[in-house]
Automatic annotation (TrEMBL):
The gene is argF'. Residues 205-315 form the Aspartate/ornithine carbamoyltransferase Asp/Orn-binding domain. Keywords: Amino-acid biosynthesis, Arginine biosynthesis, Transferase. Catalyzes the transfer of the carbamoyl group from carbamoyl phosphate to the delta-amino group of N(2)-succinyl-L-ornithine to produce N(2)-succinyl-L-citrulline. Is essential for arginine biosynthesis. The keyword Ubl conjugation does not apply. Pathway: Amino-acid biosynthesis; L-arginine biosynthesis. This is N-succinylornithine carbamoyltransferase. It comes from Panacibacter microcysteis. GO terms for molecular function: amino acid binding; ornithine carbamoyltransferase activity. Belongs to the aspartate/ornithine carbamoyltransferase superfamily. SOTCase family. Its EC number is 2.1.3.11.
């Protein structure tokens, strides 16, 4: 693996998932693989899970991990080619990225979308420029449109649950449901989950959202899409809850009906579904306390698995770079 930006960088999803689960069973089995190597984690936006799980994963492989909160501690970066830098940006990515590439063996970056201009965000300018100029393998810690480490974790968690639950049929029904939120959020997690579940191909996959909340077909093609949440939830084995803002009329909140929040009553429609969320979650807005604190929630298991997904990806890149 030369980089990890989307599912397209993965030759075999199941093999990578097995690798992550093998690290969960034996975290230090490759403790010297990354000896004398350094990984840089660059954050242009906040994080809890991604930052810490990736640091832990790198440490398990014997790598030194250095975190740089670029948004708070670094110079304001310019990403546009040919920009006349007379505004607030101080340093061009063309100058910064090769320097970072000389300090690190692997670079990871988190760059959220602006949600102001769809074409700009969906061009993935920031991470593309970074890849173009840094000269070392890049891992996405969530970009403008995708969150691949989260999606790999999600499939790791689904497979882990499946392996210990004979009550779920071999091709589970997985439902991605929109949920209300007070802020306009990126489509990244939903796009990425859809892209990975479709590529994985081992589930009946349904996406449900209010009217006008369609995601990009580039990611959802292959899924059944409905605006009837109750119908979607019927017999579901997994329910993945996530808010996203509108894609067509980009970055807007059209709908905040609390009836879209998953509750125990709605869960009755499912096959005793396990409930997933990438976190952070707004309690009693996106997801009810009764679900999050109840027996069907696997959000803590899911967040814990972020370490093993990150470790599998870093390991693949280290092996390919040898
Ligand atoms: N799910 C996720 O990416 O969490 P953080 O934003 O805390 O990293």
């Amino acid at each position: 693996m030369k980089q990890f930006i989307s599912v397209n960088d993965v030759s075999n999803i199941n093999t990578l998932v097995e690798k992550a689960l093998a690290y969960k069973a034996d975290p230090y089995k490759d403790r010297t693989l990354g000896a004398d190597k350094r990984i840089g984690l660059l954050f242009l936006n906040p994080s809890l899970r991604t930052r810490l799980s990736t640091q832990v994963a790198a440490g398990n492989l014997g790598m030194e991990a250095i975190v740089f909160n670029v948004d708070k501690e670094g110079w304001a970066l310019e990403f546009e080619e040919g920009a006349i830098m007379s505004g607030s940006s101080v340093e061009h990515i063309k100058d910064a990225a090769p320097i970072l590439g000389s300090y690190f063996d692997i670079l990871c970056i988190r760059t959220f979308p602006s949600l102001k201009n769809r074409e700009d965000d969906y061009s993935e300018l920031y991470i593309s420029q970074f890849i173009k100029y840094c000269g070392v393998p890049v891992i996405s810690l969530e970009s403008a449109t995708l969150h691949p480490l989260q999606s790999l974790t999600d499939i790791v968690t689904i497979k882990e649950v499946l392996s210990g639950n004979a009550a779920i049929k071999s091709k589970p029904k997985i439902v991605l449901t929109w949920a209300p939120h007070v802020k306009a959020l990126p489509q990244c997690v939903a796009n990425s989950f859809a892209q990975w579940i479709n590529a994985w191909g081992e589930a009946e996959f349904v996406i449900t959202h209010p009217e006008d909340y369609e995601l990009s077909e580039a990611f959802t093609r292959g899924a059944t899409i409905t605006t009837n949440q109750d119908e979607a939830l019927k017999d579901a084995d997994f329910v993945y809850v996530k808010n996203w803002s509108t894609f067509k009329d980009y970055g807007k909140i059209y709908e905040n009906d609390p009836r879209w929040m998953l509750t125990d009553a709605k869960l009755q429609l499912t096959n005793n579904a396990k409930v997933m969320h990438c976190l952070p979650v707004r309690r009693n807005v996106e997801l009810s306390d009764e679900i999050l604190d109840g027996p069907n929630s696997i959000v803590t298991q899911q967040a814990g698995n972020r370490v093993w997904a990150a470790q599998a990806v870093i390991s693949e890149i280290l092996v390919s770079s040898k």
